[in-house]
Structures are given as structure tokens and as C-alpha cells.
Specification:
Elements lengths: L8 E11 L2 E10 L3 E2 L10 E6 L4 E2 L4 E8 L4 E5 L4 E3 L7 E9 L4 E4 L4 E3 L4 E10 L4 E10 L12 E10 L2 E11 L15 E7 L4 H8 L9 E7 L2 E8 L2 H20 L12
Parallel strand pairs: 1-6, 4-7, 5-8, 6-9, 7-10, 8-11, 9-12, 10-13, 11-13, 12-14
Antiparallel strand pairs: 1-2, 3-4, 13-16, 14-15, 16-18, 17-18
Main location: cytoplasm
Family: Belongs to the UreD family.
Protein name: Urease accessory protein UreD
């Protein structure tokens, strides 16, 4: 029997630093099909970057690693031009890991578009955020468990999804969701039959910020969401029938928090409008 060829083994490491009043991409190491478009500055000092994966999705055996480092005084906003697709697997697992590090007085906005996990995928997605004291972070992750527009659910395959945030080595949030052949998709202790789940986090939050977020009316009556405060970490979670209402909700929360936390109005990446 012919062995299956190995998947892509790709890595992208980015480093951001303040130079002459603007954040610059000062370090970029690339291996395999991971890249970044030319950084630009649509709002002055902050640096916007779009992460690219030219194959457009992951299959079994692929391993993608993204490492981002933001130095003191720097401000980076990272997003993706489209959803990341994790396709049906022949049994091999697809891995995508993100390690985000923010130094004291640095700012990182991590705003990727959703992951779409096809039925039959075997996927392991992990995001680790390491913050120094005084670092600021706003980020979200949206997971579509199946293709709800096609009526497809993740009733076959597996998904292991984790998000960990720590400050100075102290855990602030350890979050993990595991789905195996549909287990956990339904029931009040699971995802209640919703196909999309999302988590948004932000540091440096006080109770007035939390009240402002909670005052946001959901734009879709079918979406369930809530927000809580863990020390100064806001955690907002949602369950939705499709990815779009989850993205709209998180963009609205980001629009409330950005002026309060960063003294900047929301500046949606242009790629979101295409």
C-alpha cells in the first residue's frame, strides 16, 4: 500500500516594533504556504496586517504555526482575508497553532475570520496568548462546526479547540472544546444545537466597560450571547446559527471597546468589506 504523502508543514513568525512613531513589521520568517501582505497604516501609527494561507484550507496531515510578537510601544492589528477551511480527513489530523506574545505597553488586536470545520475533519486548533504586565489585547475566535448554510454539522470527525491566555505566567483563561462525532453539539450543557460558537476577550476592562458591552442589543434574535469579567479580562461568548451574526456581534463589541481601551475609533480592515 502506498503511504499517503505528508501534509504542508508551514510556519510564519512576525515581530512588530515601534519605529519613528509608527509600528513596523521588523521581523518576518516564513516557511511553506503562510505569508503576510504588505503591512499598511490606514489610521496612522497602528500597523494592519493580513495573514494569508494560499492553499485556502487545511487537510489531514497539515501543520500550520503562526507566531506573533509585539514589542513595547507597538500596536498591531491582524486579520485574515477569508475563512479558514478544515476539510474532511482520511484519518490524519490537521494542526493549526497560534502563539501570540505582547510586551508591556504593547497592543495586539487579533481579529481573524472564522474557521469552518467540515464534517469528517480531524482538527486540532490551539491559540496561546502570553501577556506581559501592562500589555493590552483584544481578540476573538469564531468556529463553525460544519457548514450550516448546507445543513451540514460536525457529526463525523473530531475537533479539539483550545484558547489559553496568561499574564506574566499566570493563567487568565483556559478554554477548551472537544467534539467527537457530534458529542457536545446538542443539549443544555453543550452547544444547544447551534452550529457556530465564538469567544471574544479583551484586557484592561472595568465594570463600566462591561456594562457598555452588555448594553449592546443583539442584532439577531436567534443568537445567544453573554459577557462576564474575570479580574480585568472580558470574556464574551456567543452561539449562533451561522458565522455572520457572530462576526457582526463581535465587531459591534470591538467597536464599543476600542475607543474605551485604546482611545481609537473602530477602523474595520478594508478586507472585511470585499
Amino acid at each position: 500500500m502506498t503511504a499517503m504523502p505528508p501534509g504542508w508543514n508551514a510556519r510564519l513568525a512576525l515581530g512588530f516594533a515601534e519605529r519613528a512613531g509608527r509600528t513596523r513589521l521588523v521581523e518576518r520568517h516564513q516557511r511553506g504556504p503562510l505569508a503576510v501582505q504588505r503591512p499598511f497604516h490606514p489610521e496612522g501609527a497602528p500597523c494592519h496586517c493580513y495573514l494569508l494561507h494560499p492553499p485556502g484550507g487545511l487537510v489531514g496531515g497539515d501543520r500550520l504555526e503562526i507566531a506573533v510578537s509585539v514589542d513595547s510601544g507597538a500596536h498591531a492589528l491582524l486579520t485574515t482575508p477569508g475563512a479558514t477551511k478544515l476539510y474532511r480527513s482520511n484519518g490524519a489530523e490537521a494542526h493549526q497553532t497560534q502563539h501570540l506574545r505582547v510586551a508591556a505597553d504593547g497592543i495586539l488586536e487579533w481579529l481573524p475570520q472564522e474557521n469552518i470545520l467540515f464534517a469528517g475533519t480531524h482538527a486540532r486548533l490551539a491559540t496561546q496568548v502570553d501577556l506581559d504586565p501592562g500589555a493590552r489585547f483584544i481578540g476573538w475566535e469564531v468556529q463553525a462546526l460544519g457548514r450550516p448554510a448546507n445543513g451540514e454539522r460536525l457529526t463525523t470527525g473530531t475537533a479539539d479547540l483550545s484558547l489559553a491566555i496568561q499574564r506574566a505566567g499566570r493563567p487568565l483563561l483556559l478554554d477548551r472544546l472537544r467534539i467527537d462525532a457530534g458529542t457536545g453539539l446538542d443539549g443544555p450543557a453543550g452547544l444547544r444545537g447551534f452550529a457556530v460558537t465564538g469567544t471574544l476577550v479583551a484586557t484592561g476592562i472595568d465594570r463600566e466597560d462591561l456594562a457598555a458591552v452588555r448594553g449592546l442589543a443583539a442584532t439577531d434574535s436567534d443568537i445567544l450571547w453573554g459577557a462576564t469579567l474575570l479580574d480585568d479580562l472580558l470574556v464574551a461568548r456567543c452561539l449562533a446559527p451561522f458565522a455572520e451574526p457572530a462576526r457582526r456581534l463581535f465587531a459591534a463589541i470591538w467597536g464599543i471597546l476600542r475607543p474605551r481601551l485604546l482611545s481609537l475609533p473602530a477602523c474595520p480592515p478594508r478586507i472585511w468589506g470585499t
